[in-house]
Amino acid sequence: MDFFKVVSIEEALCMMNEKFSDMRVESETCHIRESLGRILSQDIVSAEDVPGFDRSTVDGYAIKSEDSHGASESIPSFLDMKGSVNMGEAADGEVKSGDAVYVPTGGMLPQGADCVIMIEYVEKLDEKTIAVHRPTSHLENVMRRGDDIKSAEVILKKGTRMEPAHIGVLAALGVSSVNVLKKLDFYIISTGDEVIDLDEDMEYGKVRDINGYALEALIKKMGGEVRGRSIVKDDFELLKEEVSKGIDSADIILMSGGSSVGSRDFTSDVINSFGGEGVFVHGISIKPGKPTIVGKASGKAVIGLPGHPVSSIFVFKSIVEEFARRLTGEIRNEEFVQAKMDANVHSSPGKRTYQMVKIGQYEGRTIAEPQFGKSGMISLLSRAGGYIVMDKNTEGVEKGETVRVYRI
Amino acid sequence: MDFFKVVSIEEALCMMNEKFSDMRVESETCHIRESLGRILSQDIVSAEDVPGFDRSTVDGYAIKSEDSHGASESIPSFLDMKGSVNMGEAADGEVKSGDAVYVPTGGMLPQGADCVIMIEYVEKLDEKTIAVHRPTSHLENVMRRGDDIKSAEVILKKGTRMEPAHIGVLAALGVSSVNVLKKLDFYIISTGDEVIDLDEDMEYGKVRDINGYALEALIKKMGGEVRGRSIVKDDFELLKEEVSKGIDSADIILMSGGSSVGSRDFTSDVINSFGGEGVFVHGISIKPGKPTIVGKASGKAVIGLPGHPVSSIFVFKSIVEEFARRLTGEIRNEEFVQAKMDANVHSSPGKRTYQMVKIGQYEGRTIAEPQFGKSGMISLLSRAGGYIVMDKNTEGVEKGETVRVYRI
């Protein structure tokens, strides 16, 4: 039994940052088609102007704007038709005073012209002459070269998680591959004599490995890679062997199970047996999730999560995901749904408290219904659509209060 | 030029539902490890009780509760130690009046016992006797068989999109594979004489294919499959050939480009040339995105999106994604971030108006800054983190108003 100090989530994350300040996430190159959800490892700087040429934003005639000045319905300006620009082709020739060249939407503005008058304001008198019924100003209906994006401009910042719109931006710039951070590698170990895998027969006294599968999905969803997953009995040598495998193949090893004090010591002993830093976080003031430990073994991060599935999910979201985010430097907007609580919920004094909620709609409002149940209960996971977080300095949330609901 | 009626988004979706009422999304079986993000095609019914046996929720002694009645610090109850239950093993023997059996957290409650008294309230007198210092009530510290989930209970509903917590629930139930809907197959065609692909050399007058890449990422993100992607010049026969390929390999064909009236007619002609229903939506009252067409060709859905990247993303979110959702029957909680607008934005009367915004933080509040720019502008996509939707019956959003920001 240990008597180490329980630290806050923020303290734990700071200690992790410090202990793993030498941990570097390498980068690799990938095609933009494969980049969805990946994190940029460097700024994207435009090598091209977009558009690459002055282009018309309407169907109309490219002219010199001064030729239209004073034009009206009653006194039009008459201009000479000098051909047309085809889509996707360079405009040849030059527009001189008194000339007009037809340009389709997106077409290139010919040399000499400084605006495009929309076809709606033009009357075609014959094959060679048009009448312009309205004045047009300098640069009207023109998107100039580089108006959208200028060459050498930083377009996407390092740390951006690639979304569909970003991929569109890269395509526009002619960028086909980007440098992204390698996916963080994880190794998952579920411990406990009672834990059996899906393909094993159920016997009295046994329970299925829930955390292994839930953690694997959480890791995939956050963009990590699972290098291995195993179930180990409560045996020092067997557990040490599995942790060794994890150290060899992954950056972060997650061990779950053993929520009792004795079992926690056991996990600590294994982490400490690798030499070096060993366990440096011996409990976190989070509810549920207190019996969480964090250590460094052979340079790798080893995190001991609680055995209860609900607790282990909360610790994953608050510690593992957040640690990964700091490692990768991901630029991130917190995503949540705002909802009104439909019942009072008490928090635990001095602890950051997590509460599962179900999101519902009531009279046009989004509401959050707290879902109660022992932290070992699985059905909580199927009922709840998200969770709320209560700070250690608050006493809870009252019915009617607006809360932020985070998705699992 | 066509003079067909422009319909509302809701009307367009209703028409699509009706025209494609014969479209069925098939289901397939997948392992729960591969099920993240997939949509359940049938209810999941528990075949097991969870837990599968009465279990202790604490480290303590299984006893008959009446043996502890009246027990106190000064007058304890004395009970006979009758061994212990090992984790993961069935409890043998029966607890009779006057007996106590040690049970660890999660261990199986032995026959005859109806509660567990925590070790904190027990004193071990010798190897054979314990003193109980507190009364314990019936079922205290016990989770009964099926307390969490009962056999034959519906645990996850058809239409659920699988999240990590759901995968944990299935593992708990011993379910290793599930029936999910097949991914919807898409085929993407970008049209236009000016459009070139990433590996082509840039020339004056050309533009990169942006929509092809952005749409591919949007489809992947929503859980669809892209069967093919191509760029086609404005040529009836070439376009018809590509649409044929799309019809052969996909459920939904997306054509983008040709935002001008003439080009739209051209796309319509190709869709109509396959016989059958042809084009039945000839424009949607959405801004930007009006020149959207929808048709049915050889039983498949063909959707003509605007060429401007920003418009085409909005039409994808409002029409394509929503159509897919209705086809699959996905149970969904709308996800958005609530923010305060930091500027006035006007909507277009009679149209559902979409406005790109940037999400920021100001004095502890989440704010939405509208991002303006011609709809053809790419930089909008890199600046904006999401968008707001203004209903056709509103005049816009005022500064300070709370809005829902959706992610692209």
Total of helices of chain A? 7
Sequence stretches where pLDDT stays below 50 over 5 or more residues of chain A: none
Question: Describe the biggest sheet of chain A?
Answer: 6 strands, mixed
> CATH superfamily of the largest domain in chain A, please?
MoaB/Mog-like domain
Mean pLDDT of chain A: 91
Largest sheet strand order of chain A: 7-4-6-5-9-8
User: Would you give the CATH topology of the largest domain in chain A?
Assistant: Molybdenum Cofactor Biosythetic Enzyme, Chain A
Corresponding CATH architecture of the largest domain in chain A: 3-Layer(aba) Sandwich
Distance between the first and last residues' Cα of chain A: 32 Å
Spatial shape of chain A: elongated
CATH level 1 name of the largest domain in chain A: Alpha Beta
The largest inter-chain interface, given as chain pair and residues per side, is:
A-B, 91 and 91 residues
Query: What structural class do the secondary elements of chain A suggest?
Result: alpha/beta
The total number of structural domains of chain A is 4
Protein name (chains A, B): Molybdopterin molybdenumtransferase
Function (chains A, B): May be involved in the biosynthesis of molybdopterin.
EC number (chains A, B): 2.10.1.1
Organism (chains A, B): Peptoclostridium litorale DSM 5388
